[in-house]
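Supplementary notes for students who missed Thursday's class. We covered one full example, reproduced here. Read the sequence, then the structure, then the short commentary at the end.
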Amino acid sequence: MKAIFYLFVSLVLVCCNNTESDQLKSTTDTISVKQISISEDRANPEKNPIAVYAVPVDDGMGNLNNWKFAVNIYETTKTFNYKVNVQYKEIRSTEIIQIPNFNTMPAVSIKPGKSGLDCMIGFNDSKGLFKEYIQVSVKNEQLKVKKVNSYAVRSYQRKLN
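Structure (token representation):
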């Protein structure tokens, strides 16, 4: 009889024990999103640049050439795509960047870099924090556009019992 009692108690303890793998873990950088509700298309993109960064570049003749290092960001017809126009002296480049969909309207902006001839293109996440995304700089008289971070939005589903 005692053996059956001890067997029953040990069976109950084993069955009621929650292992770590069964528990749901959460981290501070995890964002729960119910459903994506932002339209992929933008009805009326802004014609003027939504973000501008410009610094004059000395040409040695009192800025007669009107040279500058400039970055202008424009909206496109796609909500999460932006056109970036970059200029350094007479060099011009156009890039299309894609901002991840954090279920909020994207807020793209430009922050000055460490020197006058560089800046950081980024966006605000769903918590309002600036996320560095693309660095635009001039090194050895060459214009460089470099992606410094990658961001992704993932969707997970868990079946509740």
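Commentary. Strands lie at 51-56, 68-75, 81-88, 91-98, 108-112, 118-124, 130-139, 142-147. The helical segments are 2-16. If anything here is unclear, bring it to office hours.
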